[in-house]
Amino acid sequence: MASEDDIDDAIMAIRRNGVALKGNIETNHNLPPSYKSRNNLLRTTLDLYANVMHCQSLPGVRTRHRNIDIMIVRENTEGEYSSLEHENVPGVVECLKIITKTKSMRIAAYAFKTARAKGRRLVTAVHKANIMKLGDGLFLECCKEVASGYPEISFETMIVDNTTMQLVSRPQQFDVMVMPNLYGNVVSNVCAGLVGGPGLVPGANYGENYAVFETGTRNTGKSLANSNTANPTAMLLASCLLLDHLKLHDYASMIRTAVLSSVTETKLHTADLGGQGSTSELLQYVMNAVQSTGPRTLSM
Fold first, then answer.
1. Is the pLDDT of residue 35 over 80?
2. 300 has a pLDDT exceeding 90
3. What is residue 135's three-state secondary structure?
4. Three-state secondary structure string covering 268-289
5. pLDDT > 60? residue 122
6. What span, in angstroms and rounded, lies between the C-alpha atoms of 13 and 219?
């Protein structure tokens, strides 16, 4: 569909309500260059500059590594996702990566404020400044400048390729990680895989005025459609983040407790976790748990 009316309607609704729970929207790479990613349009139009994903080991989920507790803060509106590319002459394409001081300072400040608020002790800036000395160099300088205002929080830098190796070998060394757009996409997928896969990890996109919640990794899962085998955990936990954002903490806690309890039930594990449980069985378990332990909306 060439028209952007579909995403414009969604953006209007988010502007009206302030928040949204979003499913994944596929961007087909076979479409013409004029077609803009709906996901990217949503993030840039609403200036949802901070993509935040919390990857932590969950009881009941067998993984190679344990005791993982990493917060990823990804700049969400520029970098390689600026949609600025053109063909100079046939066979030669330029794709522009945009890094600005304003947005780099903003995302670095967000990462350090989050680290302080959450009682974290280390922020790692991920970069490729050894090659992209100006672009990633600017991002790195901004992170260092912001770090100087948080003396109680340790700060380190790490090249992105080394970061991926360190993640799969010793992920426990990381606490809060901050990075430009594309690196954030790669690192968040690696981290999700470390704790059990995309079906388990929620994500959030924050701006000054709006917040949109979704699964942490933006996989569409089309192959699972209508099969009753998809893992709904990530989307349910994303809804808990939305409720927390709206300060409905009791409801968020009630649902989150039920969801995390379901993860410990091996018989409910869906295929992505090596089990044979179904989507509907897991959802029924969560609904029963909520109804048995929490206040009913109608009685309030």
1. no
2. no
3. helix
4. HCCHHHCCCCCHHHHHHHHHHH
5. yes
6. 23
CA dihedral 38, 42, 44, 50 (to 10 degrees): -120
Helix (H, G, I), strand (E, B) or coil at 45: helix
Report H helices in the chain. 5-17, 38-45, 101-117, 135-147, 160-169, 181-194, 233-245, 249-263, 279-293
pLDDT at 131: 96
Mean pLDDT of 6-26: 92
Task: State the helix-helix crossing angle for 279-293 and 249-263, rounded to 10 degrees.
Answer: 130
Tokens of 147: 């770090």
Burial group, residue 260, by CB count within 10 angstroms (0-12, 13-18, 19+): middle
Contact 16, 8 (CB under 8 A): no
What is the pLDDT, as a whole number, of residue 254? 95
Contact of 80 with 181, CB cutoff 8 Å: yes
Mean pLDDT, range 273-287, rounded to an integer? 95
Q: What is the pTM of this model?
A: 0.92
3-state secondary structure of 27: coil
The upper half-sphere exposure of residue 141, i.e. CA atoms within 13 Å in the direction of its Cβ, equals 12
pLDDT digits (tens, 9 = 90+) for 65-105: 999 999 999 999 999 988 888 999 999 999 999 999 999 99
The C-alpha atoms of residue 73 and residue 50 are separated, in whole angstroms, by 6
Buried b (16+ CB within 10 A) or exposed e, 13-27: ebeeeeebebebbee
Phi, psi of 171 (to 5 degrees): -70, -20
247: which strand partners?
none
Residues 136 and 113: their CA atoms lie apart, in Å, by: 21
